[in-house]
Design brief:
homotrimer; binds nickel (II) ion; 2 helices; about 110 residues; two-stranded antiparallel sheet; about 25% helix; Alpha-Beta Plaits; alpha+beta
Chain lengths: ~110, ~110, ~110
């Protein structure tokens, strides 16, 4: 048994939650702020059998890994008309920090 | 020294908090949502000496284990009068998920 | 790699957050209540290399250790004029509870 602590961006948390359910992985969600990945993080506590750690890691990685995304910057109404302002820009989103901890005992009551 | 992470239903959290105090067990309470036990969970972080792990486990089990409870379903005002609607039904409440983690160092500053 | 779980008073949390940044230590902040240090706690999750555990511990200790502080009690407007009521009194503030946990795996995605 291992305890996985996964810290992801808020924007990836719902997707990850659903993916855990889909893979029959039981996770508990904590609200967090700041730190590893700027503000707006969610921490998941995930208990898995040793042989399912790699599977859980894939699920976390798939849902929350760092990737580039095109985003249209918000229009600045005070600015002079600027033809470049409506172009989408590439930004980095996502990212996860994950700890796998040894577990001495695990109980369901 | 061990770190116990106990995830219980919100409805059992106050009782468990009081029981910890009664047993002189120091616990920190985190708000959590969803996962192991549906939405509305509370996570406790509990630091205990090795020889008190079993005692702490009993306290957690007593306060939050799964049990049947009779509950009167809310009356549905839109429904036709139905003589069964006011009978109490048996529902499952409670339940705890508990991890006991090894600790390398423990400090009070 | 170690995972440090540090529980400090809310009033020390911002200072500790800044000190972590200053020392290039990445921490995630969880909101917590009650327990180890009365109500109003903040829990930090900190991932550090083994050789930086002592450094992180110093940072936590410096920002949040128990200390005496002089505080002027709030003026009681309903009370009779009392010359002692405006004298500052010494109160104990701060305090941290810290766990250092072994880590099997650590990943950034
Ligand atoms: Ni991808
Ligand atoms: Ni019982
Ligand atoms: Ni000092």
């Amino acid at each position: 048994m291992k305890l996985i602590i996964a810290i992801v961006q808020d924007k990836d948390a719902n997707r990850l939650s659903n993916d855990f359910i889909e893979h029959n992985i039981r996770a508990t969600r904590l609200s967090t702020t700041g730190g590893f990945l700027k503000s707006g993080n969610t921490t998941f506590l995930v208990g898995v059998e040793d042989e399912r750690v790699d599977d859980a890691m894939e699920v976390i990685k798939d849902a929350s890994h760092t990737r580039q995304q095109f985003m249209t910057p918000p229009v600045n109404l005070d600015a002079q008309l600027d033809s470049t302002s409506s172009y989408p820009v590439e930004v980095q989103v996502g990212g996860a920090t994950v700890f796998v901890l040894p577990v001495d005992q695990f109980h369901h009551f």
